Amino acid sequence: MIVAASSIHVTVGEVAAALALVAIAAIASRAWHAGLEEDIGVAVVRSLIQLTAIGYVITLIFDQDSALLVLALITVMVVFGAFTARHRASLVPNAFWPLLVSLAVAAAATLGLVIALGIFPATPRYLVPVGGMVIGNSMTSAAVALNRLGEDVHEQSRKIEATLALGATSSQAVTPLVRRSLRSGMITLVDSTKTTGLIFFPGTMVGMLLAGADPTDAVRLQLILLYVLLGAVSIAALMAITLARRNFFTPAHQLREPPEP
Amino acid sequence: MLFEVEDVSYSRAGKLVLHDLSARLPVGASSIVGPSGSGKSTLLRLLNRLADPEEGRVVYEGTDVCERDPLELRREVSLVPQLPALIDGTVHDNVAYGPRLAGHSFDARSCLELAGLDPAFEDRDASKLSVGEQQRVMLARALALEPRVLLLDEPTSALDRTARDAVEATLQDLRVRTAISTVVVTHDMEQARRLADYVARVEGGRITAQGSADEVLDGEIESAIATAEDAT
């Protein structure tokens, strides 16, 4: 591995060597009959293909220095993110649209704000990686929040209908569930932000340190990203819940899937 | 007439639960009786728009319920579900829930007393009450809305005999002390006789008999005796 002042060159052989660690995971799964060997194989192949492809795409975008290409890439990530997340929110009716809107708003609001505040310049070199992190974390947060909301509405349909029977609107009937879902969507990132530097080193900081950057710069950039991500996941989770909660009800404040009599 | 249900059909998960059902429920104490799965609870939910029929209509005091604001209708025609489903908090929080949403004043202690609960229960944690006590809190919080009609879905099915008798006594007391009309769903014919003057019998999603309680329930007993005699 050759490390220059601000860049790092990694050979294919070094990547292949890292597969030894994947072999340990596969052996552990087989030994304990966890049944994950096939998933591990798929994960390795998919990560190889997807990251190699996106590497070439990012190289092209950096070379072209085109805002339109950045926008196109972020749009594709948002759409794929919404498609992926909807499977985890399978108990939420028509979850795709709330997820699509929430990821798009989280990405637009967060990237717009970091540019407006002068935190990052509006160039592909910053917008592409930050956009990817924002959308990835927002997708997880929105999916977890909606998954929890779907499970809670399903489990508590009797309580919700009893509340509707007292003249509550559909929004009022699910308010206690919204709190819990929002918390579920955000708690992972909040906890990891609390323990960052103590229990784990975040990826960006590790990458910069490996690439030979000054540790102070690495830490500052990482802090900016953590704070940006906290904002993004809260926007994504809150917006996804706000939009999706309506899908459980008819306009007449009736549960679309009422409890069994 | 309090409710007129006209040619109503309703399906659930692709299965027809109510078939072209028509019924009339007068002002006063009525009961919808029938075996489990006959559609009687579903019929009750149509009366205050917790669900809307796919075909037909439900008329309440001369107006199609679909023309009424569903939230206002549910405050006027209040439903107490079969199983207690209280919100987290005290008994007072539960009794206060509906009136606060509507911006009405209320007297929690008198509602508890009307529902047959000691007003001293007001500050108790609702989740720590017995099922019978929780069912009474459900009744008290419905009464706090000062409804004109109470819809009660199998109000004693989760209770033991003593608690059942106490809830029935409370409902009979309500008939004497208030002008609230009641519609009680039950599978227990004798309970229908004790709690209602008018009875509609539902089987397989259709009305098979309706009329005064004595008329319908005596017919039910005669039919059961005839079936037993045929079997022997």
Q: How many domains of chain B, as an integer?
A: 1
Strand content of chain A: under 5%
Distance N terminus to C terminus of chain A?
67 Å
Shape of chain B: globular
CATH topology of chain B: Rossmann fold
Strand arrangement in the largest pleated sheet of chain A: 1-2
Radius of gyration of chain B: 18 Å
Distance between the termini of chain B: 43 Å
Can you walk through the features of this model?
- The complex is a heterodimer of chains A (261) and B (232).
- With 261 residues, chain A is mainly α.
- Chain A folds into 2 domains: 1-64, no CATH class; 66-248, no CATH class.
- Chain A is built from 9 helices and 2 strands.
- In chain A, strands 1-2 form a two-stranded antiparallel ribbon.
- In chain A, α1 packs antiparallel against α2 and α7 runs antiparallel to α9 (215-244).
- The longest helix of chain A has 32 residues, at 124-155.
- Residues 1-6 of chain A have low confidence and may be disordered.
- With 232 residues, chain B is an alpha/beta fold.
- Chain B has a single domain (3-231), classed as 3-Layer(aba) Sandwich (Rossmann fold).
- In chain B, 39% of the residues lie in helices and 27% in strands.
- Chain B has 8 helices and 10 strands.
- Chain B has helices at residues 40-47, 70-76, 91-102, 108-114, 131-143, 161-177, 189-195, 213-231, and strands spanning 3-12, 15-25, 29-33, 55-60, 63-64, 77-80, 149-153, 181-186, 198-203, 206-212.
- In chain B, the strands form 2 sheets. Chain B has a 6-stranded mixed beta sheet with strand order 6-7-8-3-9-10, sandwiched between helices.
- In chain B, α4 (108-114) packs across α5 (131-143) and α7 (189-195) runs antiparallel to α8 (213-231).
- The longest helix of chain B has 19 residues, at 213-231.
- The relative contact order of chain B is 0.18.
- The mean pLDDT of chain B is 91.
- Classes of the chains: A mainly alpha (261), B alpha/beta (232).
- The interface between A and B is medium-sized, with 20 and 34 residues.
